[in-house]
Amino acid sequence: MLLKDQLAEKISQQRTRTTKLLKEFGDVKIDEVTISQVVGGMRGIKSMVTDISYLDPEEGIRFRGYTIPEVMEKLPKVPGGEMPYVEGQFYLLLTGEIPTLEEVQELAEELKSRRALPEYVKDILRAMPRDAHPMTMFTAGIVAMQRESKFAKYYNEGHFNKNTAWEPMLEDALDLIAKLPVLGAYIYRMKYRGDTFIPSTPDLDLGGDFANMMGIAKPYDDVARMYFILHADHESGNVSAHTAHLVGSALSDVYYAYSAAMAGLAGPLHGLANQEVLKWIQELMKTQSGGQVPTQDELKKFVEATLSSGQVVPGYGHAVLRKTDPRYMAQREFALAHLKDDPIFKVVSMLFEVVPPILSSLGKVKNPWPNVDAQSGVIQWHYGVVEYDFYTVLFGIGRSLGVLANLVWDRALGYSIERPKSVTTDMLEEWAGIP
Ligand code: FCX
After folding, report:
1. For residues 148 and 395, what is the distance between their CA atoms, to the nearest angstrom?
2. Which stretches are transmembrane (predicted)?
3. CATH of the domain at 169
């Protein structure tokens, strides 16, 4: 496989850099830690390394050094589509190189051969109550497939070796990336479309096949491609990526690590925010303007009521970003071209004007601008995916590209088991000089 050959070469180069840093510069200080960081969610502490993506607070995400517009422009496009191959984004994240069309198509073929979802996964999903949250089903489906892990087999058979451990990790990553869209679409059709599963079509790329299995016509294939590419990674400190890295550091395989990551993505302050946004906008339209597009005043009142009831405005703010999320802007561009008259899109656009000044006026919100979740739900809704509790599953399919690329690299570079040190409140008081 071209991907594996290129990756092997990159790994050997990167090992030299990491070994030199560790051996010769291991004692160089790169950060200091304050009490507010320790108590406040370890915010901003430089304590992880990844080359897959970097989040600049002012500029937003760069995938392997490329901005979102660059990624969209440079990655090979699916013939007949507006958007690039999702497979190309995985190739880029894993190797750091923009793939050629031939390289992407070879990877796409490889993934097609790995799509089949084990029957026992379907049985497990069917045994769950239909009103279980789709993220619960998604997470359960992933962990259930752990018996397929080639890394676990390799380890259990006593083959573990720091030089080769990345190879079965890559195998597992390819298997899981290929299966996640099938798992997601299976859950969707079982739960919301009267249990009518549409099988995978072998001649379609990952994004096109997902749209096909969801039963949604064009341009939803491009929506799926765009969505998965944009959600692929957001460096390594966010809850889902960090969780996967942490669990993987115990030499757990990708099925364990990624199901744990998905449990984190399901939290309302993380991936669930995109479902919260749509729910909140529906509530806004229902209560303020009889289902119509509200006026600016009605919008302001609703935002203020949300804040005074102690809730956050979903889709706004970020732990690292300090400007409008470029993933929001990329989706906004698509929406302006394809659904500019959609009433919910009109509300989303009005919120972009109304919310930031209100959040800024609170004086405590570090970033009053919208994040990715403020825009993604409306596009799904427009194309008929109105079951907003499914949106985080879409996020979870996309996020696998970056998180699993990271896990392969974690094994390739032999990163250690994670074990930060905890301290007690007594110790903090002593260091603070409190008698
Ligand atoms: N609405 C109201 N208050 C907000 C806010 C918002 N959208 N964003 C931040 N704040 C508040 C915080 O709640 C905090 O208040 P407190 O001091 O009374 O507890 C204060 O502003 C400072 O928080 P800040 O440092 O700006 O933000 P954090 O790093 O603590 O939190 C998140 C970041 C994203 C969790 C926060 O902005 C939030 O809750 N946003 C809404 C939910 C959301 O959209 N999440 C998705 C984020 C992302 F895209 C993803 O991971 O998927």
Report:
1. 23
2. none
3. 1.10.580.10
Tell me the pairing of strands 60-63 and 53-56: antiparallel
Looking at the fold, whether 151 and 242 belong to one and the same domain comes out as yes
Residues 379 and 394 in one domain: no
The Cα-based distances of 290 to 32, 116, 284, 294, 340 in angstroms read: 53, 46, 9, 8, 21
From the candidates 231, 242, 245, 318, which is the catalytic residue? 318
Residue 24 lies in a domain: no
What are residue 244's phi and psi, to 5 degrees? Answer: -60, -40
| 319 Cβ below 6 A of ligand 1 | yes
Whether the per-residue pLDDT at 273 is higher than 90: the answer is no
Q: Does the bond joining 219 to the residue before it have cis omega, within 30 degrees of 0?
A: yes
Q: How far apart are CA 184 and CA 131, in angstroms?
A: 16
Containing domain of residue 402, as a range?
A: 1-16+47-270+387-418
**Which among 383, 405, 430 is the end of a domain?**
383
Q: Is residue 58 domain-shared with residue 102, that is, in the same domain?
A: yes
Q: Are 256 and 336 part of one and the same domain?
A: no
Q: What DSSP character marks residue 99?
A: P
Whether 304 is covered by a domain: the verdict is yes
Per-residue tokens: 353: 């004007």
Which candidate in 222, 325, 373, 410 is catalytic? 373
Q: What is the pLDDT of residue 395?
A: 96
- Is residue 271 very low, low, confident or very high in pLDDT (cuts 50, 70, 90)? confident
Secondary structure element (H or E) that encloses residue 60, with its range:
strand 60-63
Q: Which amino acid is at 2?
A: L
**394 alpha carbon to ligand 1 midpoint, in Å?**
22
Residue 40 lies in a domain: no
| Mean pLDDT rounded to a whole number for the chain | 96
The Cα 318–Cα 69 span in angstroms is: 21
pLDDT tens-digit profile of 220-265? 999 999 999 999 999 999 999 999 999 999 999 999 999 999 999 9
